[in-house]
Structures are given as structure tokens and as C-alpha cells.
Design a protein that fits this description.
Elements lengths: L1 E2 L7 E2 L7 E3 L5 E3 L19 H27 L7 H22 L6 E3 L5 E3 L2 H21 L4 H23 L5 H20 L8
Antiparallel strand pairs: 1-2, 3-4, 5-6
Length: about 200
């Protein structure tokens, strides 16, 4: 229970609407209706107003993203205070970029390669590629469930693909060994994470 800021003299249940109704004695009493999801008032006390519904929708999405972010935290390496929606978008960009790189870096003829000792090795990027694809699929499902549109998802995927095209061109010119190529996805993810967490120009570090 919490005290009423309007001074009605009654404590309000935080799970109920913050509005008031007239008591039998003419005094104000706390409304006992449930608020609309994402807001603090019921439909009778302003919850049906367009601006209240719009704000409630934002709150619902951020709460849903916050729950999703908690599930993804062990993968995303996120620290500090972040907007949950932005954090999911950042993780989607990183994962899209890694998948796009591995899509072009793995092929049937490269699945088995010979190390310096002459031993045949299964390209570790194959398992990595599948794990990142699974992660990307789950991220897309999560984003759609909290209202991030398919169009936004396609735009982000296209941006990631363009970035990877540039990165792949640079790496192709370096003539890396198979062992070195196998390290690229991890380095790529780490660098993208560093970029995402860096302050914007003009912001304090």
C-alpha cells in the first residue's frame, strides 16, 4: 500500500488504478479497478485516451524487451544501464553480422582442412555458424513478439550484410590461414560489441 498523492486519506493498492471514485459518504476513495497494462489508470480514469494507450504500449514493449534482455544477457556481454529495446537491436546487429560473415566463409570444400602438423580438422566455424543462426532465429522471434516490425528487421539485416561485405573484402586480401580464419567470427563479434558500447561523438566516455 502507498499513500495517496492527492490526499484522499486512503492508502492505494499499487496493483490497482490510481484514480478515485466517490464513496457513499461523498468522500474520495481509491479506484479498485485494474489499470490497463503498461499504465497506472483503468479505462474509466483515462486509460482509454489515445495518448495514455500509446504511452502504455511503449512501457509494455520496454518491459517485454527487459525480460527478453535478461534471457540474452549471458550472450550479449552487456554492462551498465541500457535501454532494453536498443540492447536487443544491438545484439541483433552483431549476430546478423557474424552470421552473414560465416555464410560466406564456410563452404563444403572448407569443412575439413589440414593443420600445420598434417592432421585433418573439421572447420570449427561450422558449429559456430549453426549456433549463431540459432541465436539469430530466437532474436528475431523475440523482437517480433515485443512489436519490432519485420521491416525494421530486414533493414538491420541489410545493414549488417553491407558491413560484412566490406570486412570480407579486407580479410580476403590478407590471405589468412585456416586457423586464422577460424578466429575471425569471435574477433568480429567482440569488435562490434565494442562499437555498440562506445559513447556517441560528443558524449562523455
Amino acid at each position: 500500500m502507498k499513500a495517496c498523492v492527492k490526499g484522499c486519506g486512503h492508502e492505494h493498492d499499487p496493483r490497482k488504478c490510481t484514480g478515485h471514485v466517490d464513496g457513499e459518504d461523498g468522500s474520495l476513495r481509491p479506484c479498485r479497478k485494474a489499470p490497463i497494462k503498461g499504465a497506472t489508470v483503468c479505462r474509466s480514469h483515462g486509460g482509454a485516451a489515445p495518448q495514455v494507450k500509446a504511452k502504455a504500449e511503449v512501457v509494455r514493449r520496454e518491459e517485454a524487451a527487459g525480460r527478453a534482455l535478461t534471457r540474452w544477457a549471458k550472450y550479449a556481454d552487456l554492462t551498465g544501464e541500457v535501454n532494453p529495446v536498443d540492447a536487443l537491436l544491438d545484439e541483433f546487429r552483431r549476430t546478423s553480422a557474424v552470421v552473414a560473415y560465416l555464410d560466406g566463409a564456410t563452404s563444403a570444400e572448407d569443412e575439413v582442412w589440414e593443420d600445420k602438423a598434417g592432421r585433418l580438422q573439421l572447420d570449427p566455424r561450422i558449429d559456430w555458424w549453426q549456433a549463431e543462426r540459432d541465436r539469430l532465429t530466437k532474436l528475431v522471434q523475440t523482437m517480433h513478439s515485443i512489436g519490432i516490425s519485420e521491416r525494421q528487421t530486414r533493414v538491420l539485416e541489410a545493414q549488417a550484410s553491407q558491413l560484412v561485405t566490406v570486412i570480407r573484402g579486407v580479410l580476403d586480401g590478407l590471405n589468412l590461414t585456416a586457423e586464422q580464419r577460424a578466429l575471425v567470427p569471435g574477433v568480429l563479434r567482440a569488435q562490434l560489441a565494442a562499437i555498440a558500447s562506445a559513447p556517441a561523438p560528443g558524449e562523455p566516455a
